[in-house]
Specification:
By secondary structure, the chain is an alpha/beta fold. The chain is built from 15 helices and 16 strands. A hairpin with a 7-residue loop joins β8 and β9. It starts with 6 loop residues before the first helix and ends in an 8-residue tail after the last helix.
């Protein structure tokens, strides 16, 4: 009789196909039940089971390989039981590629005074919904995640803000570590991968403590890196992120930098060895009238675009830039708060990040990522704030 093999060990594998010779950048393929994900990759965020303004077929045509949805919001409305009844997130939102759901922890802890922490879990008030109180244990969090049915789910963790005292961050590491162990034991859905999350704020020793505990408590198929982009400047972030990713994270597993999405940070993150990114930035800034470009961030509320007949970016090959839509037209839509303006800018911004990661991957495979990064950092596009 052949030895039983957990399907997760077959469905969720990560192959490194190339490593840059002079940086820590690597190109890989993450295998999931709903398809393969080439890395490095940016994941558009569909918080409430929709990437705002973009239908699934449009996302696919833009080059999206995996998208993210939010456990906190979906557990509130429509509720995980309804999503499960409708066949899980893939059928519910008609996206049939890979999906990652976060733990909802960031949203829970952003409620500040409306949360109460214990070793057992977190009690919080949904002030952005009906004001009800809920108590999430790691076990309850895993129950919700398994009913939603994404390919990849994240452990329940505490995400400390910045700045925060070392003692506060240390307590967050302790709680996240305890909860990781309980999540690992509670999670039993074989067609779903559970990622652990490394916390520790801007303290490298706490980050390493968090990582060590994750490696001790279970064989996680991948790791999220949380607690960054929470108020610190990006140079401060890279002081600890760079050595963590390049020197200490397990080599054969995907590394996911959570909640980071401006182009320059993606380029620098890949150089450190990060494989996966997500952020609401491309669609949120689109709704504010802004676009990424080879000239840097463009704000279409500005009057200077009133008579500009050029596309958003003459170097971009997205459907908006190649479709005849002028800066003047986008300026008009943004100023008039027309829905189509947000849709067109969202299409461009999402494509811009997806294409940036596609070109980064090519550079890694060709062994020239150091030059790719240097060229990016010296060009106007790096002025993306």
């Amino acid at each position: 009789m052949s030895e039983y093999k957990n399907p997760r060990e077959t469905w969720f594998t990560y192959d490194i196909v190339a490593e840059d010779p002079t940086t820590h950048a690597r190109a890989g393929v993450l295998h999931t039940p709903h398809g393969d994900v080439p890395t490095p990759i940016f994941m558009p965020v569909g918080t409430k089971a929709t990437v705002k303004g973009l239908l699934p077929d449009r996302l696919e045509s833009l080059g999206a390989k995996i998208i993210l949805a939010n456990t906190y919001h979906l557990a509130n409305r429509p509720g995980e039981d309804l999503v499960e009844e409708m066949g899980g997130l893939h059928d519910f939102m008609q996206w049939h590629g890979p999906i990652l759901t976060d733990s909802g922890g960031f949203q829970v802890f952003s409620h500040g005074d409306f949360t109460k922490l214990t070793d057992d879990g977190v009690t919080f008030r949904c002030v952005d919904y009906d004001g009800s109180y809920f108590h999430w244990t790691p076990e309850r969090n895993m129950e919700i995640a398994q009913k939603l049915g994404a390919d990849i789910v994240m452990q329940l963790d505490q995400c400390p803000p910045y700045p925060a005292s070392r003692s506060f961050v240390e307590r967050a590491v302790e709680l996240s570590s305890m909860w990781a162990e309980r999540c690992f034991k509670a999670h039993d859905r074989e067609d779903q991968a559970l990622f652990g999350i490394v916390q520790g704020g801007m303290h490298l020793d706490l980050r390493l403590r968090s990582l060590a505990h994750l490696e001790e408590c279970g064989d996680f198929p991948g790791y999220g890196i949380g607690g960054y982009s929470v108020g610190e400047d990006h140079d401060t972030m890279f002081e600890t992120l760079a050595p963590l990713a390049s020197e200490h994270m397990p080599k054969g597993k995907p590394r996911y930098l959570m909640g980071v999405g401006n182009p320059t940070t993606l380029v620098r993150g890949v150089s450190c060895g990060i494989d996966m990114f997500d952020c609401v930035l491309p669609t949120r800034t689109a709704r504010m009238g802004s676009a990424f470009s080879s000239e840097g961030r463009l704000n279409f509320r500005h009057a200077r675009f009133t008579h500009d007949d050029r596309p958003i970016d003459e170097k971009c090959t997205c459907p908006v830039c190649c479709g005849g839509y002028s800066r003047a037209y986008l300026h008009h839509l943004v100023r008039q708060k027309e829905m189509v303006g947000s849709v067109l800018l969202s299409m461009h911004n999402v494509y811009f990040l997806l294409d940036l990661m596609r070109r980064a991957r090519e550079a890694i495979i060709e062994g020239r990522y150091a030059a790719f990064e240097s060229d990016w950092l010296s060009c106007p596009a790096a002025q993306d704030w």
